[in-house]
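User: Hi! I'm working on a homework problem where we have to compare a predicted structure to a textbook description. Could you give me the structure for the chain below?
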Amino acid sequence: MNIALPKGYERFGERLAVAGNVLAVRLAPTKEDEYDKGTKIGAFSLSSGRLLWEWRGKGSSYATVLAHRGWLLVLHRYGDRLSVLDPADGRVVTRRRLRGHGFHSRAAARGDVIALSCDAVDDTGRLRVFRWR
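Assistant: Happy to help. Predicted structure tokens:
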């Protein structure tokens, strides 16, 4: 199966996640001014490859998406915001502000722990760990 990039986007982002039958990935827009409008996540059906929904977060155009406990977690706004999305329709279930920040954040989760690090060249010493509540 091929998943086609939607019109208006130049590439898929580096981070992706799978929750149930949904593949979520950051979409990088073709026009540079669209980057200023925030993060855009596209969700695709793994059975058909069809785009199911799009979600846009405010702030930085960079985001990390992670599947955890059946939800899609999107870390955005320089790693200081976490939005939890329902994979079925992209609805925001909850939002959280996080202490600290980390440009180009990476995320991992297990049980009730979410760990965030940073892969930006000049900010690699930053590691944050949070409890899921």
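For your comparison, note the following. The two ends are 37 Å apart (CA to CA). The chain has a mean pLDDT of 80. Good luck with the assignment!
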